[in-house]
Every structure is written in structure tokens, then in C-alpha cells.
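Box S1 | Example of a co-folding query
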Amino acid sequence: MITVLDYGAGNVRSVINAIETLGYDVKVVSQAQDIESAEKLVFPGVGSFGSMMRILNEKKLVEPLRKYLLANRSFLGICLGMQALFGKSEESPNIEGLGIFPGQSRRFQIQSAVPHIGWNGIHIKQKSSLFNGLSGEENVYFVHSFYVDAEDASVTLTSTDYDIEFVSAVQKGNVMGTQFHPEKSGKVGLKILKNFLSDALPAEMATRSIKTELTKRIIACLDVRANDHGDLIVTKGDQYDVREEGDVRNMGKPVELAQQYYEDGADEITFLNITGFRDFPLEDMPMIEVLKQTSKNVFVPLTIGGGIRDFTDKDGKHYTALDVASEYFRSGADKISIGSDAVTIAEEYIKTGQKTGESALEKISEVYGNQAVVISVDPRRVYVKTENEVPHHVLPTENKGPNGETYCWYQCTIKGGREGRDLDAIALAKACEALGAGEILLNCIDKDGTNSGFDLELINAVRNAVSIPVIASSGAGKVEHFSEVFAKTNAESALAAGIFHRKEVPIQDVKEHLKGKVPVRP
Ligand code: 1PR
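Box S1 (continued) | Returned holo structure for 1PR
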């Protein structure tokens, strides 16, 4: 029996699914004595350090945890669950961690995008059964803005390179922690988890000599909505128009397609509920069920977007965007994506320049951490004759307009491109970064579904305006479009939908094409 400590703000479901898929039964801690009686304890920490420690204190779990750990009993802390082993964190300076190992967590102060999101390697620094059966060359999945600065180097189990060499796993006796997410690291992560759960002896392990590198992520995106018969299907827009001969284009079933893309090597899976702006995700919308089913067998990060905003249902019951996001996280999502609501939140913020702490974006980021909050942008090109024709970020463009215009700006839209707003994509991205977004999913209506390649001018303009990672999206038509977007922009990942759904380009062909050009997870 494996005990999992759920303090109510993490995506515990994925950890439980991973442990169960390995053939073990799971007991979720609900009170102190569940810790006392645990044989092996797994602590997945997601969200912000402060809210994690506050909840542990409220539930009176800090002392039982410290007693368990100081007795050198079998423990695996994941992400924040590892950071909790140390002292305080710069994320919440006035709140103490469990203080088992000396040191504290610090925010990355580096040139590369923060959070550190994606697949990176590890340098193994001490013999440990955790890595039995691995070559030491594998990549594992990270999603964090803070890292532990351990004062006692002997607890360092692995390190990883991301502008700096940071501690990516720790171990002292039976107490272990990983900054990366084994439950989201595919088959490699399941092997690491299985090694923790079984009591194997440590095997000899070669240590990697060359620097590790953050790989470019290839993300499969599933636009989901109900068709005219009420069935939830994966559809695909052509410049956001999902209808073909009157019917909603049907590309397949969400859970099956997501499973297929996981097996094909997708580094992440994104579900977008594209009619979320009008129906409400918690009102028997099967998206919750899709997430629960998918997270049972898909062990790479899942992002869910669509309809994440405040809502009052027909009975007058009010739900906040945080309620919707929490339900998605509880159902297996690792990241949530906000589209339309982010535009109206950014418009308010830009008007006053003041953060209220009350917006959905700020609240979700405060509880779950900025690394769990993606902003999905649905911009449309608007051509202008001169640079100062409009009060927006205007770019010179090589793709001339219908009347030979050589300038354009990217107008934000809401409701799936149905309504244009007086806000441009660069202003939106900067405002949302300031409000706590951790990543930008940068679509482009003009390019969507056209197979004509990514909008490189848009991607460069947005990526150069923020210091959080950007996902290039819209327009992929062949493998060369992926090497092109990584060669000509600093996008950390590239997303595609149509070419995968229409089985025109397998994910493995994209990866094969990228090998040797950019770091990529096989
Ligand atoms: O506004 O918070 O409810 O979120 C709605 C979400 O649904 C947003 O993320 C928005 O981008 C998305 N969405 C809304 N309407 C559509 C539509 O297609 N009619 N899909 C839509 C957006 C973007 C990607 C697409 C890429 C790559 N689609 O899903 O896959 O453009 O496509 P390609 O590789 O086929 O070119 P809210």
C-alpha cells in the first residue's frame, strides 16, 4: 500500500494513476495518523510554496511529516514536495519549510525563459536505486520557477543544466525528492517511480558528462466541442471555422486520440474546449470526464483550456474561475489555459496599471503557481499603411496586405475569434505575464489550419516581449515548418493539430526531422 499526501492543491490524480498503473494500491492521507502508518509516502507538491505550507500547517501535518522524515522512513517528494524538505523559499519568504535538509529554494535569475518548462536531462551524483534500468541519458519533465539551493552537497542526487547547474533531485537514506515530475515523464518516469516503490538495490550507473539541454517540446492539440448531435468530438478549424458542409468537422474521439499521441511521443497534450465561452465546463460538460479518463493512461503533461472564467449557472449558483480550474486540476490537468477571460483581465489591468489580486489569472496563479497558468491568444492580422496609424504594437511585415500594406498589428479576439478587441497580442502577453501567467499559447487565426507554416513575425514579436515560454501554434503543414520555427524564433515549443488529426505527419517524423537540429526528446 502506497500512501499519497494530498494537501488539496495539487494534481494528485496523475501521481495516483501512475502508481496504480504500476500495480500498487494507493491510500490518500487525510489525517496525521495516515502518515504514521505509511510504509512508503509520496508527496506531490504543486502550486505555490506558501499555500502548500499554510495548508499543511492548517491540517496539522507538519509535525507528523517531520517525525516520519527524521526517522529516515521511505519518502519521495515531487517538485514542491522536494522543496518542502528544505527551509523557506523565495516564493514565500516568511514561511518555513519542513527544514529536514539545510538550504532554501531560490527563483531562477537567468537569461532563459522562467518557468523552466519541458524535458531536460540529469547528471547522477550518487548511487541510487531510483535510476536502476536507465542509461542516465534520458530526459525527464520539469515545470518550475524555483530550485533548491542545498547547503549540504551530499544530499544532491542529480543536477541539471539550465543556464546554471541546479539540484534536480536529492536523497539522504530513504528520503528522496525530485524537482522533475516522474508521473509526467512518460515511460522513463514510470520506471523511476517503480524503482522507488520496489526495494531494489542500487545498480551501477554511468554519469552523463556533457551538459544537459532543455528540449524543444512538440505538443499535440485537440480542439474539443459537442457536435450537432451532442457528442463530444475532436474538431479542427480552418482559420477557426470548424464546419464543413454544414457539420462540425469530426477528427475523432478525445480520449482515444490523446492516448494515440502519447504513444506517438507527444511531449504534451492540450485539450481546448472551444465552445467553453458559451457553455459551462462544470455543467455535465464531459471535458472533466475526458481529463479523468485521459490522465489514467497518459503520463505526459495535460493542459486544458476553454470556459475558465467566473460563471453563474441557471440556478443562480456562482462559480469562480478558480473553482473551474480547481476541478480541472483535480481531474488530472497539469496546466490550465485561459483565453477570452485573459483578454478582458488584461484590458482592465492596462487601464489602471494596478494589480487587484482579484482577477482569475492572479488567483489561479497564486494558488497553483504561475507555471500552471497558460494564456491562449487568438490574434488576427490587421494590415495598416503606416506604423503610427493605430495605438498598438505595429510590425513591419514581409507578407504584404491586400492593398500592398507593409505594416500590420495582431488584434486579440475573444469567443473563439468571433469578437475583435481593441488590444494587440503583444500588449496582452506582457500584461498577462505581469499578472502571473507562466506560458503563452500563441495561436494565429490567419494561419490556423492552413498548413502554410507558423507566423514567424508574430511569434518573434511576442517571444521577444516576454520572459515566459511561448508555444508557437497554428499553421504547421510539414516537418520543415517545425525546424523553421525553432531556427527563426526562440519559441520553446511548437503545437500542431490538423496535420496530426489528418494523419498527414506523424509526431515521430517531426522528431526524426528535428534530431541533430535542436534538442528533442526521442
Ligand atoms: O476563450 O478561455 O473559453 O478558451 C477557448 C479556447 O479554445 C482558446 O484556447 C481558443 O484558442 C480555442 N478556440 C476557440 N475557438 C476555436 C476555433 O478553432 N474555432 N481553437 C479555438 C483554437 C488553436 C489550436 C489549433 C492551432 C493549430 N485553435 O487549437 O490547433 O491553431 O492548428 P493547426 O496545427 O491545425 O494549424 P476560452
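The longest strand covers residues 217-226. Residues 415 and 493 are 25 Å apart (CA to CA).
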